[in-house]
Specification:
By secondary structure, the chain is α+β, with helices and mostly antiparallel strands. The chain has 17 helices and twelve strands. Helix 3 (99-109) crosses helix 4, helix 4 (122-135) packs across helix 6 and helix 10 (264-290) packs antiparallel against helix 16 (424-441). The longest helix is centred in the middle third of the chain and has 27 residues, at 264-290. It comes from Orbilia oligospora (Nematode-trapping fungus).
């Protein structure tokens, strides 16, 4: 039989020895929180087992989850029974929280919060947040979470130190606390930096750094779990619903088991998918332009240029730009591969710098000038050849001043109507570059992260 301490005190305990069996708790403590206690909550904390005598009515009032689970007429399997100090109680169990933190919770819920401190450890706050989120009773703890959070958040720089990423989860659970909005912003920025701006690298040092920051590493006694980052926050931070869907588990309560360990593998996967979505279309474009034996996907006929002078100028200037930017090992490889040593943001910024020169031509008509008949069309193979040098003076009398278009992005805005038109190839390259840049902008909070 388990004995219990005086139920009239706010937090009494009495240790009761048990058999010293390996793997079994070596002592048991009973704690009473109500003179009308009718439920025992069992908790194993390290080598000790704790029995918390509580009011099931209070738990059912504050928590919709407990309301169903503790309903005497519940359709769930009946709870086990346990006898404490000669009285029989129904028994339920909790885990993933220490006895001191659970004591704070039950004292507050049972209106015996006098002994509750206004300052607690980060680990204790995190464990309380997990429990409150699981059982949906965070509002019933007010105003204590505000006291705890404001005390721990005095040093805003500490929120970004290794080991404190769970601030993102805590601040989301207790979102009504005013300071939590700023905490979410600060830690989200760091998450964005690691997911988007940090270089892709397989080096042991880099992997260890990110693993320590976002995994179950232990620093200063704090266990860090990327999977504690709420899915709704990850969705907002990453913001790729139409580009790359998240494979994060749709678990309504993080404490309902953490599923898989989405640590460095998760970060690396998101980075690789972002880079692939940005880079692969440009690799296809470059291979089509520079490798006539390329067996991969072909460019659509609508984005090709069959004017020989314009096409030759485009290829030559594209190669010169790629070589100048030292992107040959990225855009001209035999097989597509994700490059190492680049951040997604840095790689996309390099892609933005590629330039290609094309011609502004009358692409849908033929006309005569002097002794030369000029054919400039993207739809026919006819081409009456004369030297470029002999043609240019004649062209100069008819074509616009920006005959040579040195920036493909201008092809999207200039000569969109009228007789002369810019090159379809230039428009396509500009479009692919814009799409790559847009991937960064879809990462919500990205602009704020790089500006801070």
């Amino acid at each position: 039989m388990v004995e219990c301490s005086n139920p009239n005190t706010s937090y009494d305990q009495r240790f009761i020895s048990t058999a010293q069996v390996l793997g079994v708790p070596t002592s048991m403590a009973a704690h009473s929180f109500s003179p009308l206690a009718d439920l025992v909550v069992e908790l194993t904390d390290g080598s000790n087992k704790h029995l918390f005598l509580v009011s099931s009515e209070i738990l059912r009032v504050v928590s919709p989850v407990w309301r169903k689970a503790l309903d005497p007429e519940s359709k769930f399997a009946p709870l086990e029974k346990i006898t404490v100090d000669g009285t029989e109680y129904r028994k339920t169990t909790l885990d993933e929280i220490d006895s001191i933190s659970l004591t704070y919770v039950f004292n507050i819920l049972h209106h015996r919060a006098g002994p509750t401190p206004r300052s607690i450890t980060f680990k204790s706050l995190r464990d309380i947040a997990v429990l409150a989120d699981q059982y949906d009773f965070e509002d019933a703890l007010a105003p204590w979470p505000q006291f705890w959070i404001e005390d721990l958040a005095k040093d805003s720089a500490k929120q970004l130190e290794i080991g404190y990423e769970d601030w993102l989860f805590i601040a989301t659970v207790f979102a009504t606390v005013p300071v939590c909005e700023k905490i979410i912003l600060n830690v989200s920025k760091q998450l964005i930096r690691d997911l988007v701006i940090s270089p892709l690298s397989s080096s042991e040092e880099e992997l260890n750094r990110k693993h320590d920051r976002w995994s179950k590493a232990k620093r200063e006694g704090v266990k860090v779990n990327l999977q504690l980052v709420p899915e709704k926050i990850l969705g907002k931070v990453l913001g790729y619903p139409s580009v790359m869907p998240l494979s994060f588990p749709t678990c309504p309560r993080p404490m309902m088991h953490y599923a898989k360990n989405y640590t460095i593998e998760f970060i690396k996967k998101e980075q690789e998918e972002l880079v692939t979505n940005a880079l692969f279309p440009l690799w296809i474009f470059t291979k089509n332009m520079t490798d006539f034996s390329f067996q991969g996907p072909k460019l659509d006929a609508s984005v090709r240029c069959v004017n020989h002078e314009c096409s030759s100028l485009a290829i030559g200037s594209l190669l010169k730009s790629i070589n100048g930017l030292k992107l040959q090992n990225i855009l001209m490889t035999e097989e597509f591969k994700i490059p190492e040593g680049y951040s997604p943001e840095g790689l996309i910024r390099w892609i933005e710098r590629i330039r290609m020169t094309t011609l502004t031509l009358d692409r849908d008509a033929t006309y005569e000038e002097g002794y030369h008949t000029i054919w400039c069309t993207t739809h026919h193979t006819q081409d009456i050849i004369s030297s470029t040098s002999s043609r240019l003076p004649i062209f100069g009398q008819k074509i616009p001043a920006d005959f040579f278009l040195g920036n493909q992005h201008d092809s999207v805005t200039k000569h969109t109507s009228g007789r002369f038109a810019t090159c379809h190839v230039a428009r396509h390259l500009a479009s692919q570059q814009s799409n790559a840049t847009a991937l960064l902008q879809r990462v919500k909070g990205y602009s704020a992260a790089i500006d801070s």
